[in-house]
Amino acid sequence: MTAPVRVATLGFPRIGPKRELKIALEGYWAGRIGADQLLATAAELRSYTWQRQRDLGADIVPSNDFSLYDHVLDTSAMVGAVPDIYGWSGAQVDLDTYFAMARGTHASGDAGGCAHGHAHAGTGVPATEMTKWFDTNYHYIVPEFSADQTFRLASTKPLDEYLEAKRQGIETRPVLLGPVSYLLLGKATTPDFDPLTLLPRLLPVYAQALTALKDAGAGWVQIDEPCLVLDLSDGARHAYREAYAALADALPGLRLMLTTYFGGVGDNLDTLLALPVHGLHVDLIRAPGQLAEVVARSRPDQVLSLGVVDGRNVWKADLNAILERVAPLVQAGREVTLAPSCSLLHTPIDLERETDLDPDVRNWLAFAVQKVAELAVLARALNEGRHAVQATLDASTAAVASRRTSPKIVDPSVRARAGSSDAGLAHRQSPFRERAKAQHAKLGLPLYPATTIGSFPQTPEVRKARADHAKGVIDHAAYAGFLREETARTVRWQEEIGLDVLVHGEFERNDMVQYFGEQLSGFAFTRHGWVQSYGSRCVRPPIIFGDVSRPRPMTVEWWRYAQSVTQKPMKGMLTGPVTILNWSFVRDDQPRAETCRQIAFAIRDEVVDLEAAGAPIIQIDEAALREGLPLRRTEWQSYLDWAVECFRITASGVRDETQIHTHMCYSEFNDIIEAIGALDADVISIETSRSKMELLGAFSGYRYPAEIGPGVYDIHSPRVPPAEEMVDLLKAAAERLPAEQLWVNPDCGLKTRKWDEVRPALVNMVAAARRIRASTT
What is the pTM of this model? Predict the structure, then answer.
């Protein structure tokens, strides 16, 4: 008898439908609530999420997919991979140590900015390095490994949460990040050390954690090995075989569902199929073509988990089309589980709360809750016959078809402009060396000019004013007056402390992508569609459903007002086309490159208008350029070609003396340094503080032609770095690059920080710039 088709979720959003986790975390860090209340809120969210998924029709619900900050950091805690700098006692990893790794500590010793811990009193340590989770906008805390690394079971979180669900009558499938991916995602603390050599030391800890789950009654464990979709060395492939052979020997009777996602397994398929696991999950959204070979070559007794619903985008699925692919496999007797392509962490929680969306657009969408419901419908159709859910199946197909043909998505003039073949649109008038002379003559800046990335703290007062304006409590004139006061105060303060190039603070902006999307055609926005970016940081990605254009100027008036307050140069601040694309939910009815090109022309119009208004410097942030890089090298060049061209289209409509800046953060740039150079920006600011200037190796080795602002202040931590520390970082930068190329700036915008952190940090940063300047001249 054929086994019934079951529905599984690989992970669910953690933040809560009303961002309850964010509120609790920030309350804990601020000292407003205690650890007991934080943990109680987390437990309530887990309970709600488990039951919600069961009610929606999920047969297999995950546990240990929840995290207080980051699941990779959770894994580091589980195996005791805590760097010495955090002064860990070696017992169970406590909240203070956990948040210190995530966020750093104040010099006063409050772990991660909370008012509860004293383990790090008097030290003040930086946070661990953070980077993007594959090609998503989720950030993970990078594990650090040394040659003398030891591991021990230092957190029982996977077991605790499995038992927690069990006490509530819900049998879950615990989730662990697999040991090989965990090592591959980490970094060595010394050159030429391969973290994979630590695998024999790590595996006993995994075996211990898995044994505890098995003894507690877990029949299956989901073990995520997303690195199997990357280009792997022979050594990494051998590590996979070694790891799972050892775990199989140590854990007879425990069934492992090995999950891959974000792409196809490709040339790692032989490795995957050789692993002694009981189930395989494959992503059929990013790599639909891999299904036939996986089916043909996998063991007949293995359960196949098919990622048939997009876990990373928000479009409703065509359920009839999915059935056409899956039904023959089920009819052939294969045991199948239906699942999202990856964890639903990357989608908003529930579409039902979005009552203000255009009805047509709303009919095209499915968030996490709706995606689980889609899977349940598919399972019913396969188990009971299509007739049981035919109306729902047909409604999904009709919704998908209506999006393809809706007049709301097409603007012929936008398509004609984006289709231009004029190569001159992507080139500045003169090469960088000539532009630099004109810019230096116009701006008259000193060596090591000091600036910031763009935003300043969005205080409770700023957020309240924005909310009151949205609700109609205050009118537009009152709101604009409030914003002008905040802007003027911030501009004058920047003058007082001695910054050389100023910004207006961006108090009128909700988010660096949302703000622009709200003023561009072809975008839709949610009120409650929050997605976790890292820790308590949540964003509401715009939804690009149609052709994109700029109906009117978006930033010119605010730039003009800010410049009127000062004689110092004021940057115009824009978000670049690649970042707007990568940080949005993007239409899937045309190539992403076409959508990006449309955005590029829209932002180009804004750049030209800013220059016409008098802006001497225009920053076009491309924080997500590296994030969008395909996971396989064979696909890199195609992406980089169109991404670079889109940036250049945006930036190339100005005169030589107008200085174009860009900003990138929390990514590995070494492999794409030539593409970054090809952007032809005059100045790039990048994150280097957490990595202690390691990233500059790529820029110096390549002989990057333009100017660079290596971030000397980690804004993702509440810690205030002393001037001496920033001087040391700048000296390290000056060993790699000439002083004439270097700027001084934080590593990212200051929107999420508090003024009592920002003020002393920037005062120290200006002092550091003056010291290094004096020592050079």
Answer: 0.91
